[in-house]
Amino acid sequence: MNKRLYLGCYLNRIAIAYNCNPLKVPPLQVIKDFFTYAQPAEHLKAFDEFCLAALHDQYRWRRGSPGNVLYYSEQLELLIEAAYLLHQKPHSKDKLDKVLIETLRSFFNYASLAKWKKRHHAFMHAALSKSSVADELSPVIIYKCTAFLKKLIIVAADIISASDE
Predict the structure, then answer these.
(1) 3 state SS for 90-158
(2) CA distance linking residue 93 with residue 106, whole number of Å
(3) Would the pTM of this model clear 0.85, i.e. be above it?
(4) Contact, 79 vs 31, CB < 8 A?
(5) DSSP tag of 38
(6) Helix (H) or strand (E) holding 113
(7) How far apart are CA 115 and CA 34, in angstroms?
(8) pLDDT tens-digit profile of 117-157?
(9) What angle do CA 22, 46, 107 make, to 5 degrees?
(10) Cβ contacts of 80 within 8 Å, gap of 6 or more
């Protein structure tokens, strides 16, 4: 399969949100947009609530309507896709902080973009329904996914604050 076609299949959230070829969207812009939605501390709190909602076997989202959990899930998916683009663009790595490069490397060494999206969708489905993500994913995978995503949010926030200075 052509690499561009492969990427286009998995970068659908960026394609939808930015209404263009996802390979033409600057990944740092996607990350900046993620943090215009909320500050890093608020994202971390919302992420914790998203994970708790996904773990319960009944609907538990307490931040407004089910549409809000869907919107937040889409924002997280944008962050994952932007991280993948940063990970894949070797020419931009010289401009990035070594901590971000290492985080991206370990993030995508742990799971491919396709696996990240599949696992993220399992969390989203569980957060929106009366089922638990534990019905689909093992406790180890749930723990690692939440730890890696939390680390990604923190490092992405650091990069954006460093680029604003």
Answers:
(1) HHHHHHCCHHHHHHHHHHHHHCCHHHHHHHHHHHHHHHHCCCCHHHCCCHHHHHHHHHHHHHHHHHHHH
(2) 15
(3) yes
(4) yes
(5) S
(6) helix 113-128
(7) 21
(8) 999 999 999 999 999 999 999 999 999 999 999 999 999 99
(9) 50
(10) 113, 116, 117, 120, 149, 152
Sign of the torsion formed by the C-alpha atoms of 26, 23, 88 and 91: negative
- Give the integer Cα–Cα distance in Å for 85 and 114: 13
pLDDT at 92 over 60: no
Q: In terms of C-beta density within 10 A (0-12 exposed, 13-18 middle, 19 or more buried), how is residue 158 classed?
A: middle
Unique residue bearing structure tokens 């740092």: 28
Q: What's the token pair of residue 60?
A: 């538990």
Q: Which of 85, 96, 78, 105 is nearest to 12 (CA)?
A: 78
CB 55, CB 61: distance < 8 Å? no
- Scan for tokens 């060494």, then name that residue: 109
Residues whose CB falls within 8 Å of the CB of residue 129, separated by 6 or more in sequence, listed in order: 59
pLDDT at 1: 43
Nearest C-alpha neighbor of 103 from the set 151, 144, 162: 151
